[in-house]
Design brief:
This protein is mainly β. It is built from no helices and six strands. A four-stranded antiparallel sheet has the order 1-2-5-6, with no helix packed on it. Strands 3-4 form a two-stranded antiparallel ribbon.
């Protein structure tokens, strides 16, 4: 068996909204990686314990968000508030 390169397919979409003192971002993504290279166990009767094969897939999907606001912006003081987070789901086949 001949090994192949792993292949990754990505889909991303993002939204950014902001003003001088406020900024919000939202990103959605979906990644699929195929032909993962894994070590597969073989029966000892074959003469080898294992071999590398292209098997399996991994799917990652999630949402990332960020909220940023300037609470105080003056000559002597700058106070900024930032809140960000993400969710991730991973499936291994």
């Amino acid at each position: 068996m001949i090994l192949k390169w792993e292949r990754t397919f990505e889909k991303n979409i993002g939204l950014e909204v902001g003003t001088k003192s406020f900024n919000m971002t939202l990103d959605l993504y979906h990644n699929l990686t195929k032909d993962l290279i894994v070590l597969v166990a073989l029966p000892l009767s074959v003469g080898f314990e294992s071999r590398w094969e292209n098997r399996g897939e991994v799917t990652n999907m999630g949402v990332e968000w960020s909220f940023d606001v300037d609470m105080v912006r003056s000559k002597n003081l700058y106070w900024n508030f930032n809140f960000s987070g993400l969710t991730i789901r991973m499936f291994i086949w």
